[in-house]
Amino acid sequence: MANSAKEGANSGIQNAMARGVWNDDLLREFGEKLSRDDFAGAQKIVMGSVHDGALHGYLADLLIIEIETRLENSHAAQAKKCLELLLICAPDRKDEAHMWFADYHMGQMQKSLSRGRIASFGHDLECILEYAPHRKEEAHSLIAQYYMDKLKSCIYENRGQVAESKALGDLMRYGPSRREEAYNLFAERALDEMRHALSNYDKDYAKITMEEFLKYAPHRQKEAQAMWEQHLETARKRKLYDILGIERAATEEEIKQAYRLLAKRLHPDVNLDNPAASEQMRHVNAAYGILGDPELRKRYDMRGDRKEFN
After folding, report:
1. pLDDT in tens, 133-168
2. Please, what's the largest Cα pairwise distance for the chain?
3. What is the DSSP string of the chain?
4. What are the sequence ranges of the domains in the chain?
5. Which distant-in-sequence residues (6+ apart) come within 8 Å of 39 by Cβ?
6. What is the rounded CA–CA span in Å between residue 90 and residue 87?
7. Which of 42, 83, 215, 262 meets the CB 3.0–4.6 Å disulfide criterion with 33?
8. What is the CB-side half-sphere exposure of residue 21 using CA atoms within 13 A?
């Protein structure tokens, strides 16, 4: 689109010069002043030909080319000077010029977001809304995606509630329609933590994480309840040999060794930050109480799992 617009404008100017529509010296002078950034001199030419509508049309073609070229080279301030001249000689082409500015600032905003330069994208957003207010949704969508990615990073990297709340707030500002998607992220994390807590026999924390899950996904209550019941059922059926991490054919010495290692790993002194360790140790003690006694072990092997020890 950019090349076709530029080619069309160039073609129009060349045809006009070939027909002698205006003095080619004036055209060259105007082009030279623009190349030297002599916008005051260029404006005099525009104002001096105020009654020549045809001439203004061709000057506008030149200015459109200059606007496009300068924006491509990131010379936005100079492009804006060209825009001011364009609005004098061809105000009806304002939307065409504004399109180039909107595209430029959209690109700049994308660069800022991709590089994490949050302080920079605000100016570009303001410019987009000034030149192309109908592209607000498009611009906000780009920003919302940035904050969605940031929210995911905060959650997966466990950066803390403050960082998560800020990222969520920014996301809701630019992409309120993505609320459910964001809430699903929190719900999935809570579900994983609940699963982990249940597998570690930490029912208190499991209850907390279930409440957190239902806060963000109340419509998934049956799913959470099913997981809770499944883990409890698995825990009730867990074999004593599995608790000690040994094979059913383990020797007495291997049973003792497994118990000692678990007792050492689950000792309160080395599990100050793991309150579930004491619950795990209770199961280990119960398992060893059966398997460590030859007679009880024999009865257990014959009868199967003893639920009263779970």
Report:
1. 999 999 999 999 999 999 999 999 999 999 999 999
2. 116
3. -HHHHHHHHHHHHHHHHHHT-S-HHHHHHHHHHHHTT-HHHHHHHHHHTTT-HHHHHHHHHHHHHHHHHHHHTT-HHHHHHHHHHHHHH-GGGHHHHHHHHHHHHHHHHHHHHHTT-HHHHHHHHHHHHHH-GGGHHHHHHHHHHHHHHHHHHHHHTT--HHHHHHHHHHHHHH-GGGHHHHHHHHHHHHHHHHHHHHHTT-HHHHHHHHHHHHHH-GGGHHHHHHHHHHHHHHHHT--HHHHHT--TT--HHHHHHHHHHHHHHT-GGG-TT-THHHHHHHHHHHHHHHHTSHHHHHHHHHH---GGG-
4. 1-89, 241-310
5. 33, 81, 82, 84, 85
6. 5
7. 42
8. 16
Please state which architecture CATH assigns to domain 241-310: Orthogonal Bundle (1.10)
Q: Which residue has the tokens 């795990």?
A: 280
How far apart, in whole angstroms, are the C-alpha atoms of residue 262 and residue 252? 16
Q: Tokens 């059913």 sit at which residue? A: 248
- pLDDT beneath 70, residues of the chain: 1-23, 50, 200-201, 233-238, 303-310
What tokens appear for 145 in the block? Answer: 């995606």
Rounded to whole angstroms, the Cα distance separating 241 from 255 reads 9
Closest CA to 45 of 11, 75, 88: 88
Written as six digits, the tokens of 67 are 């606007």
Tokens representing 136 are 């607000």
Q: What is the pLDDT of residues 229-265, one digit of tens each?
A: 887 766 655 678 888 999 888 999 999 999 999 999 9
